Amino acid sequence: MSQTLAIIKPDAVGSGKAGKILAHLEGAGFSVRALKLLSLSAEQAGAFYAVHEGRPFYEELVEFMTSGPVIPMVLEADDAVPLLRETIGATDPAEAAEGTVRKLYAESKGRNAIHASDSDENAANEIGFFFSDHERLGIG
Ligand code: IDP
Ligand code: MG
After folding, report:
1. Is the CB of 61 inside a 6 Å radius of any atom of ligand 1?
2. Is 63 contained in some domain?
3. Ligand 1 touching residue 5 (CB < 6 A)
4. pTM of the model
5. Domain hosting residue 129, numbered range
6. Alpha carbons 34 and 72: distance in angstroms, whole number
7. For residue 129, what is the domain's CATH number?
8. Which residues does the annotation mark as catalytic?
9. Rounded to an integer, what distance in angstroms lies between the CA atom of residue 42 and that of residue 59?
């Protein structure tokens, strides 16, 4: 088993899709090992997406991620990182495969419903960004 980080983004939380997305993730085989609802400050969102600093969409991304509450969660499964990337689909919902979270629930390439870690190393860092060890169940 391994773990990854998902974030249900402000567009999906604000439009009442969080429950359906959580059910979709559980249906895809993930166990929820930690979860919280919170609002990100601009400083926090900027730090979380620091890898994208300088890209044309960076400021829009930070503004979007601070526009309402988000739901970060730790998800556990076999090969959790690639399984979650497959489950959520391509960044742009117009290019996402049928049946993926982004195809079903995302509005646009920017407002795309959900974040998922893209490597085991980034998953560990991103889990640590939101959760302390005692908040996280399961494998260490
Ligand atoms: P990912 O979320 O599929 O891993 P990344 O390339 O890591 O995609 O981009 C991070 C986030 O930045 C995306 O999920 C999306 O919200 C936003 N983003 C990426 N590219 C664009 C763009 O071209 N326009 C607007 N927003 C973008
Ligand atoms: Mg990414």
Report:
1. yes
2. no
3. no
4. 0.98
5. 2-41+70-135
6. 8
7. 3.30.70.141
8. 115
9. 10
